[in-house]
Amino acid sequence: MKFKDWPKLPLVMIAAMLVLAAVLYPSLPAQIPVHWGINGVDRWETKSLATVFQPALIASALYLLLMFAPYIDPKRRNLLQSKQLYSLIVDMAVALMLVVEIGEFAAAFRHNLPVDRVILLGTSAMFVVIGNFIGRVKQNWTMGARLPWTLEDPEVWRKTNRLTGRMFVVAGVLGAIGVFLPTPWPIVMLIVPSLALVPVLYVYAYLLYRRRHPDEYRDAEA
Question: What is the DSSP letter of 123?
Fold first, then answer.
């Protein structure tokens, strides 16, 4: 992916985050919320350049990491064929950090704002969008269900990532519903399906690969 192909919207959002942090810095209170748990804000930090500009710096680092990852991907040609989806994921990741920054600043002025639910809703929306596209991605080492069996067999990759997409959508929908339920359901309904992704995909990919390549396992057991 050449520099001219890098998505530009994240750069605009990062610039907006830096400007917003600089403009609001003088008026922000002495304590800034930096983390939300099951019961809302569970960690505050003293206002400083590091705490106020942290979301923008994280978004910048995330953007650079995601942009350089394709350059070292052994299957980058496949990844470039999915660059529109990859750019969408980068857009949404940085957009989520923008939401986090706005939420932190808003909660600093009004402590009772349900910022955690807004962030969870944004995360759920990202899950749904990614889930609707991830099944189309070809084999690569950067995004998708990158497991030993999926990287060996294109068909196992395709079917496992289709299942990944469905599970992402389910997790996103459940997370969005949970936002409107009492604590602790907002986090539980997003986290539990997300945690189930790994074991389910491991077992599914392994069994599918073993069914498609029985001779390999017979030779290993002999």
Answer: H
CA-to-CA separations, 221 to 12, 120, 171, 207, 218, in angstroms, rounded = 56, 46, 38, 16, 5
Residue spans per domain, the chain? 1-113, 115-222
Q: Are 96 and 122 in contact (CB under 8 A)?
A: yes
Q: How far is CA 122 from CA 66, 87, 103, 114, in A?
A: 20, 17, 11, 13
Nearest CA-CA partner of 216 in 155, 152, 154, 161: 152
Model confidence band, residue 5 (pLDDT cutoffs 50, 70, 90): confident
Q: Which residue has the tokens 């600093």?
A: 108
Q: Which residue has the higher pLDDT, 217 or 62?
A: 62
* d(C-alpha 141, C-alpha 220), whole Å: 26
| Count of C-beta atoms within a 10 Å radius of residue 87 | 19
Residue 196 three-state SS: helix
Buried b (16+ CB within 10 A) or exposed e, 162-191: ebbbebbbbbbbbbbebbeeeeebbbebbb
Span 21-55, pLDDT tens digits: 999 999 999 999 888 776 667 788 999 999 999 99
Amino acid of residue 99: V
Distance CA 222, CA 33 (A): 59
